[in-house]
């Protein structure tokens, strides 16, 4: 990584990252670090990419910020205490119950 510049940055879900890394594993031999990352992603990926995208659209419709929506999708909080952990630096939204209902419908 020495001498390389960061060209872009975007948030993604574990489900999407898993799909990207699995596609790269088929095409090319992976380095040790990428293999460890893929192993981690496969262990902790709960949703499919399609399910994650569906939940993302629903969360954005509930006025959740993009970064927070991605974290909610990765963690999948099932109660208010878990949801508070996602919003630990800011106030929990007023529609927190709607957010939890959207998650519970999916899982």
Automatic annotation (TrEMBL):
<dbReference type="InterPro" id="IPR044876">
    <property type="entry name" value="HRDC_dom_sf"/>
</dbReference>
<comment type="function">
    <text>DNA-dependent RNA polymerase (RNAP) catalyzes the transcription of DNA into RNA using the four ribonucleoside triphosphates as substrates. This subunit is less well bound than the others.</text>
</comment>
<dbReference type="InterPro" id="IPR010997">
    <property type="entry name" value="HRDC-like_sf"/>
</dbReference>
<dbReference type="InterPro" id="IPR005574">
    <property type="entry name" value="Rpb4/RPC9"/>
</dbReference>
<dbReference type="GO" id="GO:0000428">
    <property type="term" value="C:DNA-directed RNA polymerase complex"/>
</dbReference>
<keyword id="KW-0808">Transferase</keyword>
<comment type="subunit">
    <text>Part of the RNA polymerase complex. Forms a stalk with Rpo7 that extends from the main structure.</text>
</comment>
<dbReference type="Pfam" id="PF03874">
    <property type="entry name" value="RNA_pol_Rpb4"/>
</dbReference>
<dbReference type="GO" id="GO:0000166">
    <property type="term" value="F:nucleotide binding"/>
</dbReference>
<keyword id="KW-0240">DNA-directed RNA polymerase</keyword>
<keyword id="KW-0548">Nucleotidyltransferase</keyword>
<keyword id="KW-0963">Cytoplasm</keyword>
<comment type="similarity">
    <text>Belongs to the eukaryotic RPB4 RNA polymerase subunit family.</text>
</comment>
<keyword id="KW-0804">Transcription</keyword>
<dbReference type="GO" id="GO:0003899">
    <property type="term" value="F:DNA-directed RNA polymerase activity"/>
</dbReference>
<dbReference type="GO" id="GO:0006352">
    <property type="term" value="P:DNA-templated transcription initiation"/>
</dbReference>
<dbReference type="InterPro" id="IPR010924">
    <property type="entry name" value="Rpo4"/>
</dbReference>
<dbReference type="GO" id="GO:0005737">
    <property type="term" value="C:cytoplasm"/>
</dbReference>
<protein>
    <recommendedName>
        <fullName>DNA-directed RNA polymerase subunit Rpo4</fullName>
        <ecNumber>2.7.7.6</ecNumber>
    </recommendedName>
</protein>
